[in-house]
Amino acid sequence: MVKKIKISINGIFVEVEDGTTILDAARKAGVIIPTLCFHKDLCIAGNCRVCVVEVAGQKRLAAACATPCEEEMEIFTNSLNVLHSRKQIIELLLSEHNADCTSCFKNGNCELQKLASDYKILKQDFIRLVPFKNYTIDKYSPSIIKDDSKCIRCQRCVRTCAELQGVNALTVAYKGDLMKITTFFEKPMNDVVCSTCGQCINHCPTGALVERNYIEKVWDAISDKTKHVVVQTAPAVRVGLGEELGLGQGVRVTGKMVAALKRLGFDAVMDTDFTADLTIMEEGTELLMRLKAVLVDHDPAVKLPMATSCSPGWIKYIEHLFPDYLDHLSTCKSPQQMFGALAKTYYAKARNLDPETIVSVSIMPCTAKKFEAARPEMHDSGYRDVDYVLTTRELAIMIKQAGIDFMKLDDMHFDRLMGESTGAAVIFGATGGVMEAALRTVYELVTGRDVPFENLNITPVRGMDGVKEASIKIENPLKEWAFLDGVELKCAVAHGLVNAKKVMDSIISGQANYHFIEFMACPGGCLGGGGQPIPTSPEIRLKRAKAIYAEDEGMPLRKSHQNPEIIKIYKDFLGKPLSEKSHHLLHTQYTARKRY
Amino acid sequence: MTTSYQLKRADFIFKYENDWEKILSKCISRTPQELINELISSELKGRGGAGFPTGLKWKLAAEVVDATKYVICNADEGEPGTFKDREILSMVPYKVLTGMAVCGYVIGAKEGYIYLRGEYFFLQPELNKAIREFEYYCKGINLDFTIRIFMGSGAYICGEETALFESMEGKRGEPRNKPPFPSSYGYMGKPTVINNVETLAHTYTIFKYGAKRFYDLGVQYSRGSKLFSVSGDTPKPGIYELELGMSLADFVDEFGDGDTKAVQVGGASGFLVPRKRFDETAIGFQGKLTGISLPTGGSMMLFNSSRSMFNVLDNYLEFFREESCGQCTPCRVGCQQLLMGIKAVKRGEKNAKYLDKLLRLTETMKLTAKCGLGQSVANSFSSIVENFREEMIY
Predict the structure, then answer these.
(1) Chain B residues closer than 8 Å to A61 by CB
(2) Residues in A touching B364 (Cβ below 8 Å)
(3) Among A117, A227, A337, A507, which one is least packed by beta carbons within 10 Å?
(4) Is the pLDDT of residue B209 over 50?
């Protein structure tokens, strides 16, 4: 039982648990204290000092986020002293910040801008520091643009990169006036260990870190009459997009999103979920082949556990940090890249289009997908498989620019051929989803029966625990898979790269004996991706996850191998999973990278 | 003026005493409680500048139950104009080592560290020799206490106790949020006593001669003697041990060159006292003596009338701008604004009233900065600008 203590905030008495910070206590009392460096996902820094409050009997003001309440503490959040100091701190931040708001990508969704607006600091006569510094914009990464002139040194990105992702690509260097957030030896972002996951963007309060945006390029393509523009949308986008367009958190907007994309002028609106189902077919078969090679043929060249390869942030991470373990990765491309390769082959053929004229656009909850699309090997269709990747946020911007009243749109369906999907594909958007989808299909392929979980819901792999484990015992398999009889299929799911590292370490140390592991770079999986609406928090991610699983439950088909368009593509085009054509179009290889 | 405010020399710290083995053995034959009481009754306050009661510090750490605790000697002497710790460590290291070992015995720590300023690497060989000899003796009397030197790398901020811990832990030297305080959560998250070199040397005096001998020196609230690093426009720069509580006028009579315009007490983070206030200023810790009383880490910089106070302030602010760790807004941006602000006023780009805005800024920095560095920039800034406003403008 935690001790309760009584405190007063602006004269309001509240009882809180011992150890509660002043900030949390104030929220409980209905008092809002502004913050900047504070983020629910991250450890306390206490360095922006915007949240300072007055505590009776103390000479100095206390940072509300970092100061625990004490018995009988009398706290004032709006005394003149506090207001003066807070205003001056905001003014200091503005003097250091390149406050050219109208030309900033984060205009309208900037926490510093909001503070400036709330506190109305009309007379800013501190000397503007930006012109005295030699700031450069790091535009080298295909995913992330880093503009130091907009940085307020709150270190949220540094803490994100270290605590959530364990990557430490961004770090603090120098001191005093020269102190800045930078990379190893100040190398450009594309030259360091950065996984391009974009979590730093999601946690940046200002426009110092933003995605490289392709909005103009996509508008150009749409308006080019000689081009046939195909768009695909990732599973997590449909539960995030609404947040950017004035709907609540965790609202499913699949039908409206399709309608909006059609109104924007895309020639075909199809679904990454289709290739998610396809991924399950390929990856599931690959898993079974690997199991056979290891358990029956004892082939030392084939490695277990097999790791999923859908998350390009995770791929880049393992390429940098565990280059010796790349043969554990499934050779399957991510659903986005499978879609890209098929759009310029299968789709082009079926629609009788010259692939040269096809522009393939994808809407992703992800910034690493931008990097992935730009990988040199992703040209298996003979062209660049995915031309432009837009984040959920960029799509929302386009919808606003086009003057589409999103709320008033009627639901529409994805176009045929590569637009059909199952519930198994939708849950790709949540952590554990790929695992659950794969198990639904693999178990049935092997045994001819449904997975032994109520209503196909494999609950052990759901939820927000950093590392989840599950195992399924295979009994009475079909004759073809007799070697799997009695085998307990051991699986693990990790989301957030810091958790991925834990699992990798346990594999390397030999403690873990998994067969199959799902890795997702971002906390919560794609629904918490670096391209999703800002802000993010554990609560918001939970709401999005709930929406994803609701979407799954509502689908008539919930197993990838039941998808009629999947059955059709194998019949008409690919042959069977892991066929030569599949290998050519749907599988890839990986590149070892350096560790800094 | 009563005699207690006169300048009196003392000679304890540098007195050659070859009986440290005896003092150490005597101390560990007493109970920790007795030793704490002795320290508390001596009213020894931290000699690094902040003036926290040393006995209380030890008591707080002793009360925390933990199998691992640490004693750290803060030898990151970085305050501009301070050079006493270097001398203590090279002349009488065994006094400091004894103080550390007794502290270890009192609080239940088995490991001690000396955080040595990066620029003092030349002290290392001799100091290590002293430590080896000291540890050998400790072993002989069954006192389980080891001492290691940790070399700093030249950042001023690492003298701030929690930044010092971070630095020792291999992290960036940035101050932590307080609370928790070092006595419960210090180096490696363990209860830690961190004392200035001089403070530890004074404990030796107290344990040898008794609390009363120490208490009898100085004045109320400011007991004992203190080392002063005297520099600037003085015919006799150097280190002097003086009783606390002297008036600044007496001090200037002794050390000034006859033309002293102002004295900076406590280094760049201290206060500047102009000539007209020498009489009413006593050097000691807080407490109503007469006029103002100033704590000090021992730096006394004298300036004569040939010095421009603008240049002095400019120099301090440049120091702070560079030595701020850069993590908290008021200090990082504030120091830059103060420095650029006074230059802009001097050049006529901002009018004189802008100085008032800067004074208000130092008030904000004092109230909101995360650590002592940012909080104390206000001291020199406001005392210089308020007393020599015309020199800032013309």
Answers:
(1) 367-368
(2) 84-85, 88-89
(3) A117
(4) yes
Topology (CATH level 3) of domain A93-211 = Alpha-Beta Plaits (3.30.70)
Q: Which residues have a Cβ under 8 Å from the Cβ of B3 and sit 6 or more positions away? A: none
The stretch A64-77 carries a mean pLDDT of 97
According to the model, what pLDDT value does residue B296 have?
74
Contact at CB, A92 and B337, closer than 8 angstroms = yes
CATH superfamily of B10-215: NADH-ubiquinone oxidoreductase 51kDa subunit (3.40.50.11540)
pTM for the model stands at 0.94
Per-residue DSSP letters for A86-136?
Answer: HHHHHHHHHHHS---GGG-TTTTS-HHHHHHHHHT-----SPP-GGGS---
Q: Residues of A near B (CB-CB distance < 8 A)?
A: 44-50, 52, 60-61, 63, 66-68, 81, 84-85, 88-89, 92-93, 95-96, 125-127, 129, 132, 152-153, 155, 172, 174-179
Query: Angle at CA A544, nearest 5°, toward A541 and A548?
Result: 135
Residues of chain A with CATH 3.40.50.1780: 215-274+337-408
Q: Cite the residue boundaries of each domain of chain B with CATH code 3.40.50.11540.
A: 10-215
More confidently predicted of A288 and B2? A288
Choose the closest CB to B327 out of A47, A67, A126: A47
Confidence of residue B292 (pLDDT cuts 50, 70, 90): low
**CA–CA separation, B220 vs B5, rounded Å?**
11
Cα–Cα dist B271/B251, whole Å = 15
- Taking an 8 Å cut-off on Cβ atoms, the answer to whether A175 and B155 are in contact is yes
Alpha-carbon distance of A456 to B160, in angstroms, equals 58
Other Cβ atoms less than 10 A from the Cβ of B311: the count is 11
Cα A441 to Cα A286: distance, rounded to the nearest angstrom: 12
- pLDDT, tens digit (0-9, with 9 covering 90-100), for A522-576: 999 999 999 999 999 999 999 999 999 999 999 999 999 999 999 999 999 999 9
Strands (E), A358-499: 358-364, 388-391, 467-473, 488-495
Give the pLDDT band of residue B3 (cuts 50, 70, 90): very low
pLDDT score for B5: 65
Mean confidence (pLDDT) of chain A:
96
* Predicted local distance difference test score (pLDDT) of residue A566: 97
Number of CB pairs, chain A paired with chain B, less than 8 A apart: 114
ipTM, two decimals: 0.94
Of all residues in chain B, the percent with pLDDT exceeding 70 is 97
Q: Calculate the alpha carbon distances from A77 to A9, A33, A91 in Å.
A: 7, 7, 18
Distance, in angstroms, between A89 CA and closest chain B CA?
Answer: 6
Q: Which among A67, A85, A124, A163 is the top mutation candidate for probing chain B, defined by the most B β-carbons within 10 Å of its own β-carbon? A: A85
| pLDDT per residue as tens digits for the range A11-57 | 999 999 999 999 999 999 999 999 999 999 999 999 999 999 999 99
Class of domain A215-274+337-408: alpha beta
User: In 3-state terms, what secondary structure has residue A348?
Assistant: helix
Question: Is residue B291's pLDDT more than 60?
Answer: no
Residue A410 has pLDDT above 90, yes or no: yes
State yes or no: pLDDT of B293 exceeds 80: no
Residues B169-174: contacts with CB within 8 Å, 24+ apart?
B172/A172, B172/B325, B173/B325, B174/B325, B174/B327
Output phi, psi for A400, to 5 deg.
-65, -45
Are the beta carbons of A536 and A203 closer than 8 angstroms? yes
A4-78: CATH topology is Ubiquitin-like (UB roll) (3.10.20)
